[in-house]
Amino acid sequence: MTAILFAALLAASTPAPVRLAIAPWSGSRLPTVTRTAATFRLSVIGPPGARVTLSATGLARGWLAAFCTPKLCSPERIDVTLPSSGRTDYQFELIREDPSASKRSGARIAGDDGSSVDVPAAASPK
Q1: Total tally of structural domains belonging to the chain
Q2: Residue range 2-12: average pLDDT?
Q3: What pLDDT sits at residue 51?
Q4: Residue at 97 is within a domain
Q5: Is residue 5 part of a domain?
Q6: CA 88, CA 84: separation in Å to the nearest integer?
Q7: Which residue in 90, 106, 110, 79 sits closest to 41, CA to CA?
Q8: What is the pLDDT of residues 56-82, one digit of tens each?
Q9: Euclidean distance between CA atoms 46 and 28, whole angstroms
Q10: Contact 124, 98 (CB under 8 A)
Q11: Who contacts 28 (Cβ-Cβ below 8 Å, separation ≥6)?
């Protein structure tokens, strides 16, 4: 009985990880993004005030990933603190920097809390 109570208390005190969702970008591009990037909407959803560091991995050689807001783009990683709504969105982009690189790349976005989402392989729109 004590073990069950301890497990319940531990589960209640451990914050739920954030959820990550990826979708095609719709609407106008943010002013900070690269015109030749493949763009996606990255939604970060979780408890208000939750903090997570997101990193992009698994890109093809010669590609760069960026997490963008209307004010800046952060290459490869970003620190997120969720607002009171419990949700924030980024324009996530995959940028082919090397002309000799493969024409397509995907990525994995992983949080330091164990959350993750796979970004489907996309080609640079150029």
Answers
A1: 1
A2: 48
A3: 95
A4: yes
A5: no
A6: 10
A7: 90
A8: 999 999 999 999 988 999 999 999 999
A9: 26
A10: no
A11: none
Please indicate, yes or no, if residue 7 is contained in any of the structural domains. no
CATH number of the domain to which 98 belongs: 2.60.40
Region at 86 (left for phi over 0; alpha for psi -120 to 50; beta for the rest): left
C-alpha distance from residue 96 to each of 5, 9, 60, 61, 63 (Å): 52, 47, 9, 9, 4
The SS3 of residue 20 is strand
- Confidence class of residue 9 from pLDDT cuts 50, 70 and 90? very low
Q: Output the pLDDT for position 7.
A: 47
DSSP string, 28-93: PPPTTS-TTSEEEEEEEE-STT-EEEEEEE-PPTTEEEEEE-SS-EEESEEEEE--TTSEEEEEEE
Residue in the block written with tokens 């024409």: 103
The answer to the question of residue 85 being in a domain is: yes
Question: pLDDT of 12-55, one tens digit each?
Answer: 444 557 999 999 998 777 777 777 889 999 999 999 999 999 99
Domain range for 76: 18-123
How many residues are listed for the chain in this entry?
126
